[in-house]
Amino acid sequence: MTPAKSRIARDSVTDDPPPEPAEPRTLCERAYLQLRQDIVQGRIRPGERLRVEHLKDRYQVGAGTLRESLALLVSDALVTVEGQRGYRVTAISLDDLQDLTDTRVRLETEALRLSIRYGDTQWEAQLRAAFDNLSALEARGPSADPVGWEQANRCFHEALIAAHRSPWSQYLLKLLYRHGERYRHVAIRLGTNQSASRNVHEEHASIFEAAVARQEARAALALEAHIRLTYELLSSAQVEM
To answer: What pTM was estimated for this model as a whole?
Structure first.
């Protein structure tokens, strides 16, 4: 079993998967997180060749460490291996986004329903804290602190389903969220997310209010509409990926 696969297997069977560290603990982890962020945010373009001899200088690590980081990104499906020709950033497309969106809707809405059903007062308190933090950033506008907003947005979505204690669901949804983040950055660069038809804070507020009111169906519908909107906006704009 490769290091990447063993990490997945280890994380997926724990009762409570550990959060990502605030600071990377190893050179491999640092390079992995930096590379992942550059891919997700579009600084390294979809389909771009990842040449170890160039990247090791950019990320200030040795070739072996960089290859280990790339192997982790392959397990995240953010990088592909082309036989003996090396690594390439995974391509994106509207078809891929539609499939990603449909899969995320199925998993995340069901996880939300179960989280609402079984969540206790601690779950609700943590959800309120996550929503308040996200709301404070959204009041300033996501463009004021895009990195902080993305982190707060991810924490809010994770808090919504935190009472559904399925390690597999949580792992898969984190992976899907990361891929969805790539498309959000495309939408932001093109101005699509700033469309007058979208108020992200109102979307989050609708999900939150239904969740704390323990209204499973209403919360699930609000979450589905929220997840699907990025695809709908990019599709209607006929964006070339």
So the answer is: 0.84
Strand partners, 79: 89
Instruction: Locate all alpha helices (DSSP H) within the chain, ordered by sequence.
Output: 3-12, 27-40, 52-58, 63-75, 94-118, 121-140, 146-160, 167-190, 200-212, 216-236
CB 210 within 8 A of CB 222: yes
The dihedrals phi and psi of 240, each to the nearest 5 degrees, come to -85, 125
Q: Which of 74, 89, 104 is the last residue of a domain?
A: 89
Side-chain half-sphere exposure of 154, counting CA atoms within 13 A:
19
Same domain, 77 and 150: no
d(CA 222, CA 217): 9
pLDDT tens column, 87-143: 999 999 999 999 999 999 999 999 999 999 999 999 999 999 999 999 999 998 767
Q: Supply the range of the domain harboring residue 137.
A: 94-236
Q: Which residue type, as a one-letter code, is found at position 16?
A: D
Closest CA to 156 of 207, 232, 113, 105: 207
What are the φ and ψ backbone dihedral angles of 79, each rounded to 5 degrees?
-135, 145
Q: Which residues of the chain have pLDDT under 70?
A: 1-22, 142, 192-197, 239-241
Which residues have C-beta within 8 Å of that of residue 130, sequence separation ≥ 6? 152, 155, 156, 158, 159
User: Is residue 241 assigned to a domain?
Assistant: no
Write the DSSP symbol of residue 60: T
Count up the domains in the chain and report the number: 2
